């Protein structure tokens, strides 16, 4: 399962996203289905969750569950690249302009897709026309009959008085679209629905760019942070505080924990013993960038208070640049009466 | 080929996975068999939901062209209800983008980057990138057969549209979050002159009382230094303040006794005046979006006064707002009406008559009756701007609060048999001015509401 494939992190504006979902590659290449998506690999194999930030298609009026892209914390990106698990792709430059030939191919494929859809729809319509009542509720059938009856009566009164006798019989017994078009060939009530339906087809707005032939991530990839920094596309970590955060994140990750953002709990990370999907977090971690950094008593009180209130212990994680070690202190309310 | 993918009507809706109860921790050794099984199922459900595609009927999709040179998307085919509150029309000449024929389109619909990105993400807009080579623009009606530019994926739109026109990822996330909830959002600062914005807020002029003002300034100078009581005694004639025959109510006495000026009209003491202009211009705390509740009757050519003012900051780089920054923010906000009190059956001041409030405080025609009670000169001097500019509800509520709470001498008789005062804590918590600050930390958004409480107007007696 843990493939050796490097996960491409699409970087733009110094933010790293993961876009690749299963089956997002072009239709015919079905072989890619066998490999898990990058998001799945990150989560299952690398214990990194990121944050889903995109609008979920077809469920676009909610914020409970969001879709791709998966946005990674900078600490996660640094960890992935330093461990040699991912590469950084300069996404702004990787999108080339398509050549005329590529455009033509894309257009023709798109049109072919439309044609296929239309053919399918026509086939479907033909089947429907034979059994028009299939798949309709009784109420809908009744309504439809009523409507047809009214229309037929109106027409009969206006044009053809002698037809008025026969129409009620027809609408009650025979499938109407076929029938009505036979009775009044000039009137298109039977033919237009089918054609209307046929002209509408499904348009697919592509999510990831990997379907584009003119998307060239491989020549804009960086395997090290230094190279990416030289290219000006990535600069985390820059400051001692950022380096401390990366070090603490890495240390906790190496111990097997899952980390999420801890901003809402007054810390840097939430530390989970397993996948956050299934397990509660045990700690809120805040990073102290050096042994010399001041720590006010008020912070200890506040962290202890908030941590206890949310059934977590607060972790003070102190990074020492000289010793390259992280020291942890946890705060909990002692609970003596 | 994946059949279900292309077949008409096979727009499989993703299913949001049910969360279920979490366990405290995995069993030793990475979790029990049951735990691993449930975890696998939860993960699969999650990844399955992510696999949903942006499919839309060709009859409802809109088309647009992204012009990186002007940071806008030109909407060539606009369909759907969302365009009633998004986008603006503008006339572009040929030099703005080399492809548009100058005479053919006098006005066209354009989208800001965040609007376009949101549309694309929803799967409601198919966006093409205009060819940088300047290929001829195809007639917009023919997009069915030939593309108008390079088709853009959502990924490419994220890469190209964020970072344009002051749009950061944090800002876009807040925008999209609120849009998904149904809010209408407009930029507070028009990015182009044609962009419609809410009418500017008419702020109340500086208070005309020169005496208190001088005193305020004096006090704001005094605060940072060691407070010398003797100096205060020098300036103020205490005994004049306690001439009790002028004071009618306890509130009057308290008001007269107040020698420390208070309220938000007092100018802030600024420790370093030289750095002030630079710090204000570079402050990340700026109103970025005007937000409207989903139920607002909204016309995008003439947006009304917004319901919320939204500031977006990056929680990783931005410290908590300073007092100066907050004051600057509140300085440009209008005073908001109080939220209606919670329905408890009794205390609903803005309600029509019939509830338990006595008729003399809550009159049927609030416009005339309070004027009889409180001298009009006093009320107007208190709220010089609100009379002209604010909404009727605000007007009504203000009037209903004023007689019972502000020190109106003639109110003495009636206030004695007011059975129930409005709860001051709601007003204190909400404040007169409210700003919403969205702090985004690596993708997760937290919304904070800052209110400017008016403690000096709600004495606790």
From TrEMBL, chain A:
Compositional bias annotation for Basic and acidic residues: 145-162
Alphabetical UniProt keywords: Lyase, mRNA processing, Nucleus, tRNA processing
Enzyme class: lyase
A matching Pfam family: tRNA_int_endo
Active site per UniProt: 272, 280, 312
Role description: Constitutes one of the two catalytic subunit of the tRNA-splicing endonuclease complex, a complex responsible for identification and cleavage of the splice sites in pre-tRNA. It cleaves pre-tRNA at the 5'- and 3'-splice sites to release the intron. The products are an intron and two tRNA half-molecules bearing 2',3'-cyclic phosphate and 5'-OH termini. There are no conserved sequences at the splice sites, but the intron is invariably located at the same site in the gene, placing the splice sites an invariant distance from the constant structural features of the tRNA body.
Entries under InterPro entries matching the protein: tRNA_endonuc-like_dom_sf (IPR011856), tRNA_intron_Endo_cat-like_sf (IPR036167), tRNA_intron_Endonuc_cat-like (IPR006677), TSEN34 (IPR016690), TSEN34_N (IPR059049)
One Gene Ontology cellular component annotation held by this UniProt entry: tRNA-intron endonuclease complex
GO biological process, one term: tRNA-type intron splice site recognition and cleavage
Comp. bias intervals (Polar residues): 181-193
Family statement drawn from the similarity comment of this UniProt entry: Belongs to the tRNA-intron endonuclease family.
Domain TSEN34 N-terminal: 36-91
Keyword Nucleus: yes
Designated name of the protein: tRNA-splicing endonuclease subunit Sen34
Localisation per UniProt entry: Nucleus, Nucleolus
GO molecular function, one term: nucleic acid binding
Record lineage: Eukaryota, Fungi, Dikarya, Basidiomycota, Agaricomycotina
From TrEMBL, chain B:
Ranges for domain tRNA-splicing endonuclease subunit Sen54 N-terminal: 47-128
Keyword Hydrolase: yes
Region (Disordered): 1-30, 340-386
GO cellular component terms attached to this protein's record: tRNA-intron endonuclease complex
GO biological process: tRNA-type intron splice site recognition and cleavage
Biased composition (Polar residues): 357-367
A Pfam match: tRNA_int_end_N2
Keyword annotations of the record: Endonuclease, Hydrolase, Nuclease, tRNA processing
GO MF annotation, one: endonuclease activity
Family note: Belongs to the SEN54 family.
Name used for this protein in its record: tRNA-splicing endonuclease subunit sen54 N-term-domain-containing protein
Species in which this protein is naturally found: Boletus edulis BED1
Organism taxonomic ancestry: Eukaryota, Fungi, Dikarya, Basidiomycota, Agaricomycotina
